[in-house]
C-alpha cells in the first residue's frame, strides 16, 4: 500500500461524484461509481479502489460510524473545513491575502 498520496488524491477528487444522482445518498452513489470506474484499474489494484470507494462512502458528516480508514477520515474532515463560498468563487486558497489578484474579501 505504497500509493498513499495517489489514493488520497483520487478519494478527495471523487468523493462527491454521486451528487449527479442527488445529495441524499451521494456518498453511497460515489462509492458505486468509483467501484465501477474501469479506468481506475490501470492505476490501482482492487484493494486500493475499495479504499477509495470506502473513503467516499465514509465522508458524509451525518454518518454515525467512524470512517473505516485514514483516507475516509481525511476526506471527511477536509470536506467539513471547505467553505462552499470559496468553491463557488472558483478557487481555493489559504486566505493569506498575499496574492495581488486574490478575490477573497479581507476579514
Number of E-type strands = 0
Identify the overall geometry: globular
Q: What class, by secondary structure content?
A: mainly alpha
The percent of residues in helical segments reads 40-55%
Order of helices and strands: HHHHH
Summarize model confidence as the mean pLDDT: 78
Tell me which oligomeric state these chains represent.
Answer: single chain
What is the domain tally? 1
SS field, number of helical segments: 5
Low-confidence stretches: none
Q: How far apart are the first and last residues' alpha carbons, in Å?
A: 42 Å
Instruction: Summarize the biggest pleated sheet.
Output: none
Rg over CA atoms, rounded to whole Å, is 15 Å
Strand content: under 5%
Question: Any chance you could write out the topology, listing elements then pairs?
Answer:
Layout: H1 4-14, H2 26-36, H3 46-58, H4 70-81, H5 84-88
Give a brief rundown of this model.
By secondary structure, this protein is mostly helical.
Question: Key features?
Answer:
5 helices; mainly alpha; 107 residues
Characterize the structure shown.
It is a single chain. The protein is 49% helix and 0% strand. It has 5 helices and no strands. α1 (4-14) crosses α3, α1 packs across α4 (70-81) and α3 (46-58) packs parallel to α4 (70-81). The termini are far apart. The model has no long low-confidence stretch (mean pLDDT 78).
